[in-house]
C-alpha cells in the first residue's frame, strides 16, 4: 500500500511541546511519511523545543517579525503553506490547538482540499474575545477539520453541541502529558545557577507566568501589584517569574517587580527546564493554558490569572482555581494556599483529568485507521 504523507504544522513553543511527542510517534509508523512544517510565529522559544526533542523541520516559513500583527501572521502563513502544499500534496495536515498558525494552517489546507486533523480540539470558553484570538481560532479550525482529537470528554461534548459529527471525534487525552514523561527528572540540574541554589524545601517557591493579550495593560499591572503583596506578607515565599519576551509585558514586569530580592525575573526557559522547575515549586500562578494541564500532572495547585478558562475540567476536579486579575482575590487565594496546609493538600492531591501519556499513540493509530493503513483497536482516554 502507498504510504500516506502527513504534514504536522506548528509555530509557537506551546504547540511544539505538545506536537513533539506526536511527531516522534508518527516517525515510527511504516505506513506514514511524516514531515514537519514550522511557521516560527515565535522564533526563539520555538527553537528551544525543536532542539530538545531533536526535531529538524522539513519546512520553515520563518514568518516572525517585530511587532507582528494577527493579519500579518495569517497572510504570511497562508502564502507560505500554499506553495508547500501545492508541491508536497499531503494526504493530511495536522494542526494543534488555537494559535493563528493553527487556524491559518487549517484554512490553507482547506483551500487545497487537504484533510485536516485538529489536535487538542474542542476547548471552549464560549466567549469569542476571551482568550483573544484563541477562542475563535479553535472554533474556526473545528469547522475546517476532518478529524477532531479531543483531550477530554468535555471537549468532545463542546464539538457535538456545535454540530460536529460524533464519529469524527476521538477522546485521546492531551499530548503534553506524553511530553512530560520525557522531560521531568528527579535529579535534574538547571542551566541557571540561581535555580539550582534556591531552597525548594524550606521556601515556598511559586512559579509565575503571565503574558496573554487580554491581560495587557491593567491586568499585568494588577498581577504585579498582587505579587509584591504576596511576597511582603509571606517571609517564606519566593517567586520565579518567567517573563515573556514581548516588550508590552516585559517593560511593565521589570518596572514593577525588578527591585524585589525575593522575586526572580527570568527569561522563558527551555521546555525541560520549565517542567522540572514546576516539579520543584510549591505552586503555579499563570494565565497560560498549557500550565493548567502540566502542573496538575505534577501535583501542583494552579491559580489561573484569568476570568475564564477553556480547560474547565481541572477546575471541576479541584486542581485549578480561577482568580482573574483582581488584586485582592489573587492575594487572598494565594495566601490561603500558602498558609493553610489542608487547602493546599486538597488541590495538590486532586486527580489530573488531562491524560495518561498515550495520547500520541492513540492519534497515530486513529490516523492509520482513517486511511486504512492498518486496522487498530482504539481505546479512548476516558477519565
Write a structural description.
This protein is α/β, with parallel strands linked by helices and 383 residues long. The chain has two domains: 4-174 and 355-371, 3-Layer(aba) Sandwich (Rossmann fold), CATH 3.40.50; 193-349, Rossmann fold (3-Layer(aba) Sandwich). It contains 16 helices and 13 strands. The strands form two sheets. The chain has a seven-stranded parallel sheet, sandwiched between helices. Helix 6 (153-161) links the parallel strand 6 (147-150) and strand 7 (169-171). Helix 14 (327-339) packs across helix 15. The chain is globular and about 65 Å long. The two termini are 36 Å apart. The model has no long low-confidence stretch (mean pLDDT 94).
Report the mean per-residue pLDDT as an integer: 94
Give the helices and strands as they follow along the chain.
Answer: EHEHEHEHEHEHEHHEHEHEHEHEHEHHH
- The amount of beta strand, in percent, is 15-25%
Largest sheet: 7 strands, parallel
CATH architecture of the largest domain: 3-Layer(aba) Sandwich
CATH superfamily of the largest domain: Glycogen Phosphorylase B
CATH topology type of the largest domain:
Rossmann fold
Q: Give the helix tally.
A: 16
Strand order of the largest sheet: 3-2-1-4-5-6-7
Distance between the termini: 36 Å
Radius of gyration: 20 Å
Total discrete domains:
2
Shape label: globular
- CATH class of the largest domain, please? Alpha Beta
Query: Helices and strands: which structural class?
Result: alpha/beta
